[in-house]
Design a protein that fits this description.
The complex is a heterodimer of chains A (232) and B (207). Chain A is an alpha+beta fold and 232 residues long. In chain A, strands 2-3-4-6-5 form a five-stranded antiparallel sheet, with helices on one face. In chain A, strands 1-7 form a two-stranded antiparallel sheet. Chain B has 207 residues and is mainly α. Chain B folds into two domains: 75 residues, Rna Polymerase Sigma Factor, Chain: A (Orthogonal Bundle), CATH 1.10.1740.10; 76 residues, Winged helix-like DNA-binding domain superfamily/Winged helix DNA-binding domain (Arc Repressor Mutant, subunit A). Chain B is 57% helix and 1% strand. Chain B has eight helices and one strand, in the order βαααααααα. The longest helix of chain B has 23 residues. Chain B starts with 6 loop residues before the first strand and ends in a 10-residue tail after the last helix. Classes of the chains: A alpha+beta (232), B mainly alpha (207). At the A-B interface, α1, α3, α4, α6 and β5 of A face β1, α1, α2, α4 and α5 of B.
Chain lengths: 232, 207
């Protein structure tokens, strides 16, 4: 891994910090696609952030309300054995069910794409390139058969590099169906999650298994248009 | 709008979410009940300040609780027109620093294992990384540590961090940037190992 310039380090920090302008962010994300060293460095920084998030998970106080101590009490409140046991069980249960801090919901992915006007960062020139990319990233491939209504625009990147809807390997494909956009989230089948979108988002989500892959179509349309066009 | 048999809709049932009521306006005098209400509003942020200064979260609630006890003895000193979080934040920092000093004197063993149930311990593959980062975190100045945790983990705006820690916004931003660099330096030479831990992500090729 090569040493980064101070400017690149500042950009990585600003990117993770969310303090880049939309233009800066787009340019940075475009550079990530072609600059493996920058991508690797971002990944190390993201790992630092993820580690901090793991280590400092907030747990609700075990007391229901603040009860300031009276003078003369011990320095620290001693929990009763029962309260401690219950609290421990609650914390353990909460931890087991806690969300991955880097996971974002599908509607957030949609919002990220909206923010960049559904502009893809990368477009495959042909089906063969599309297959090669999928195989390289996820180990299996398919193609999408375009038609009069359906057009594959290209791949998204970056906004979902640090945060992701399924796993950090999730690929995001932007498509146009008539006048609407439709997004496909692609990952290995073992990364499948019970993705849902809130009704008020106006979005629908559909799932399809394809070999060892799982595909989700995120769309404002009342029925999937891209998943039925997936071909071996 | 039928769907092909192998495509499943994941649309959820109607699930309205309620909104939380806003905070009430503070009175001219900070009564015990008003103090308790404001403490609850700020508790999470205060917890993160305490956890950052201690370097782990095991006793962060205790520190906030003790700081609340200290604050209760000083209610008369509080000017209700000033920022409650800044006032309490200072007290939490003071109590947490005292606690951290005491712990350094009496510490034995791995602090990150103390009081942490087995089910809460990180995945072994992340544990080495976390320990490395935790050690680096403790090498930071306590204000820098608090800025980093409040920003990266708690997601606070710099203006809020500035208020909570009583430092300029620019200083908070600078602390976060430099702290990230410091922690990243701790991983120098371990990138390949890190990549191995983070399981098989392809590093080549454009998306």
């Amino acid at each position: 891994m090569s040493a980064m310039s101070p400017r690149d380090l500042e950009r990585i920090n600003a990117y993770l910090d969310g303090s880049m302008s939309a233009e800066e962010r787009s340019a940075f994300e475009a550079e990530l696609v072609v600059n493996a060293a920058l991508r690797d460095e971002l990944e190390v920084f993201a790992a630092v952030d993820a580690s901090l998030s793991r280590q400092f998970v907030y747990a609700e106080a075990q007391e229901p309300a603040p009860i300031p101590m009276r003078r003369g009490m011990p320095r620290f409140v001693k929990w009763s054995a029962l309260a401690a046991g219950l609290a421990l069980a609650a914390v353990a249960a909460w931890y087991a069910l806690r969300p991955d801090p880097l996971l974002i919901p599908p509607q957030q992915v949609w919002a990220n794409m909206e923010a960049v006007n559904f502009k893809p960062v990368w477009r495959c020139e042909n089906d063969e390139q599309f297959r090669q990319l999928l195989t390289a990233r996820l180990g299996e491939a398919f193609v999408i058969e375009e038609n009069e209504r359906l057009r594959v625009l290209g791949w998204a990147y970056g906004a979902d590099y640090v945060q992701y809807p399924l796993s950090k390997d999730t690929l995001i494909l932007i498509n146009k169906v008539g006048d609407e956009h439709s997004i496909i989230l692609i990952d290995r089948a073992d990364k499948e999650r019970n993705l849902k979108v809130p009704r008020e988002s106006g979005l629908h989500i559909y799932r399809k298994r394809f070999g060892g892959l799982v595909l989700y179509e995120l769309t404002p349309l009342p029925e999937p248009a891209v998943l039925p066009a997936v071909r071996p | 709008m039928g769907e092909p048999a192998d495509i499943q809709s994941h649309d959820p049932p109607v699930h309205p979410f309620g909104s939380e009521a806003g905070a009430g306006k503070a009175g001219a005098c900070l009564t015990a009940s008003e103090f308790a209400r404001r403490l609850e509003e700020s508790r999470r942020t205060l917890w993160f300040i305490a956890a950052a200064i201690l370097g782990d979260r095991t006793h962060a609630h205790d520190v906030v609780q003790e700081a609340a006890a200290v604050a209760m003895t000083k209610l008369a000193d509080f000017d209700s027109s000033t920022n409650f979080l800044a006032w309490m934040g200072q007290i939490v920092r003071y109590v947490a620093l005292n606690e951290a000093r005491g712990r350094r004197r009496r510490r034995a063993g791995d602090v990150h294992e103390l009081g942490v149930p087995a089910s809460e311990r990180p995945d072994p593959s992340d544990k080495a990384l976390d320990e490395h980062i935790a050690a680096g975190l403790m090498s930071l100045d306590e204000t820098a540590r608090a800025c980093l945790i409040l920003r990266v983990v708690h997601g606070m705006a710099y203006s809020q961090i500035s208020q909570a820690l009583n430092i300029p916004e620019g200083t908070a931003m600078s602390h976060v940037h430099r702290s990230r660099l410091t922690l990243r330096e701790r991983l120098r030479g371990r990138e390949e190992e890190l990549r191995g831990v983070r399981t098989g992500r392809s590093t080549g090729g454009a998306t």
